[in-house]
Amino acid sequence: MRIVLASASLARRELLQRAGYTFEVIPAGIQEPEHCSDSGPAAYVAHVARLKAEAVASRVAEGVVIAADSIVWHQGQVIGKPVDREDARRILERLAGTEHELWTGTCLWLRPEDWQLAWQEVSRVYMRPWTKAGLEAYLASGTWEGKSGAYAIQEKDDPYVELRSGSLTNVIGLPMERLSAALHMLTLARRQLTKEPQALTARLSQLEKEARTDPLTGLPNRRAALELLRQLLQPTPTRNEPLVVALLDIDDFRKINERYLLTGGDRVLAQLGQRLRQIVRSTDVIARYGGDEFLLLAPGVDSQSAQAFIRRLQESLGSMSMPLGPSSITVTASAGAVVLGPACKSSDTLDTASVLEKAAQALAWAKAQGPQGCALCDA
């Protein structure tokens, strides 16, 4: 099957080449939109990746187009590509000694069927503090040019940055683990197009499920949860029940990663996903929002019962002992929630970005209280 990379990125080319793919390059050549402060990093990279895929797909008669967009997300802001050396210095000094997220949106567009498969992936990266000599040498090398966040990670023993969680190839430019699986599935689906229509439908359904599921926890991923939230926010004559939208953040999760390393942190998240699925109601939706954050959608919970509802969930979660190595640990979570009444949900001005922004603010208040903090606000 013909493969077209909709990117001029040398790093992305090298990743595909090392994976053994034969492909051609057709850069999208689009003007990337400005990031809107109301949208999170996942929504932005998904949007831009799709724009790139669509631009190249219109020029491809047959084959699969691979498009991707990556951004650095640091303390609630996008860190773009430096415009010059001094801008690179400013960015690197800002990132030094802190952890940030690298988000990549990937969109596969199969022609001529116009099937689309998209997902977003996040990796957490720590940039070590710079020495004055080290920073000057790095700036002089020119490695920062054309790079989001003004850096490019090496595959092992990188002197400047350290992968804390997620995919390394995602930080380099393409999440190759999921991309390889998706390309394989699309190839099989294409082969069976005429022979086994039912098998094709099943495979496409499986691809869509994988694109909406977090592979570590088995919970719905951010994309799936946001789509459902948009549906729940749509006013309808028959939907007049209240809704609680809550963000849960694992207390002191960094300490777990530091003590038990990334594999230990991943095991905790996997067990946590199973536990959350067990303790929420059948009408609730619990999804992995990103990193150690989870998103809860609880229809039918009003402002009078919301705090007690969240507290019961926190207590149930905190009562569980998780085996980890030779010992076991107890995990707690802080929660910030926004309560949407029927009248509020019928407002034309209500959208996912504003609701999640309020939930994030409530979570910040909750975390300021200490472990198992809980804070609510009205929309």
Textual characterization of the structure:
The chain has 379 residues and is α+β, with helices and mostly antiparallel strands. The chain has 12 helices and 14 strands. Strands 1, 2, 3, 4, 5, 6 and 7 form a 7-stranded mixed sheet that branches. A hairpin with a 2-residue loop joins strand 3 and strand 4. It is globular and about 60 Å long.
Number of distinct beta strands: 14
Report the β-strand fraction as a percent range. Answer: 15-25%
Q: What is the alpha-carbon Rg in Å?
A: 22 Å
Helix amount: 40-55%
| Straight-line N-to-C gap | 49 Å
Please, how many helices?
Answer: 12
Oligomer status = single chain
Structural class category: alpha+beta
Largest sheet: 7 strands, mixed
Low-confidence stretches: none
Order of helices and strands: EHEHEEHEEHEHHHHEHEEHEEEHHE
Q: Can you tell me the overall shape?
A: globular
Overall pLDDT, averaged?
86
Summarize the structure.
This protein has 379 residues and is α+β, with helices and mostly antiparallel strands. 41% of the residues lie in helices and 25% in strands. Strands 1, 2, 3, 4, 5, 6 and 7 form a seven-stranded mixed β-sheet that branches. Strands 9-10-8-13-14 form a five-stranded mixed β-sheet, with helices on both faces. Strands 11-12 form a two-stranded antiparallel ribbon.
